[in-house]
Every structure is written in C-alpha cells, then in structure tokens.
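Bug report

Summary: structure tokens for Peptidase S24 and S26 domain protein differ between web form and batch submission.
Environment: batch mode, default settings.
Steps: 1) Submit the sequence below via batch. 2) Compare with the web form result.

Sequence submitted:
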Amino acid sequence: MSPIDLIRSYKRKQHSNVEEIFVRVSNKSADIPLFNHKVSAGFPSPAADHVEVRLSADQYLVKNPTATYFVRVKGDSMINAGIFNGDVLVVDRSLDPSIGQIILAEIDGEFTVKYLGQNQLVPANPLYQSMRFDDADTVALIGVVTGSMRKFL
C-alpha cells in the first residue's frame, strides 16, 4: 500500500496512539547553520561562533523521500522511548522492521507506534501491556520510525 493509499484508508480509532498521518511534501530544503561545537545541556561552556556546515531537516531526517511520511503521536504509551503526545515521527516504509526497532503498525485497523518484539508490539510505558500478534485478526508492519520532531513554542 502506498503512503497515499494508507492515508486515504486511515480512520481514527479510539485506542490508536497515532493521531494524524502526513505525506512529506517538501521538494526543497532550507539550509540552517550547524555549529561545529556541541551545546552543553548542563553548565554553559564558552560559545564558539563557527559554522561547520549547513543542515537541512530533510537531509538529516529523510533518507528515502518517496517512502517517508510523518505521523503525529497521541497518548503516552511510548514516553520512556522519548516519544511524547503531539510529537511528529518520521516513518520510512522502505526499511524492513527488525526486532527492537520502533515501528508504525496497523493492528485490526488501528495504527500504533511501538517497539517491535517477538510476535508482539511492546510499549515504552509500564502502564500499558504488549499487543500480541496472536490476539489480532490482522497485523501489518507499516514502517520504521527513523526520527522525531517536537515543537516547544
């Protein structure tokens, strides 16, 4: 199923932790300066005003533009993986999912983002239970989550 067909068939379900699915529409990139010194998240260090390269969000987050799309997360089942309510995840359909990766899956018509386990999808929050493939009528592994975007303002 192509990303366009996936989006056309998408129906919001109550128990899904995927709120929206977006097709990647950018055909050009906006290069932003990337400084050659890392920024301290603890105590400040002397600033260095030297630009190393210019970085495009597309270049950094998207490896296969024709197979990449974005999903907005709803809920808190993946908070211990650093994925929070409202985050936008980058999903690449061209990658084969492997055990231990975070993936987008469709279980009985509901989209969800979880770790891929052996015959199950595993949340990153102990308040939720794993979803066993044996308990579902239909299971589709849609794509691998390769990145995340979050707005603070």
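Above is the batch result. After comparison, the two runs are identical; trailing whitespace caused the diff. The CA atoms of residues 54 and 64 lie 20 Å apart. The first helix runs from residue 3 to 9.
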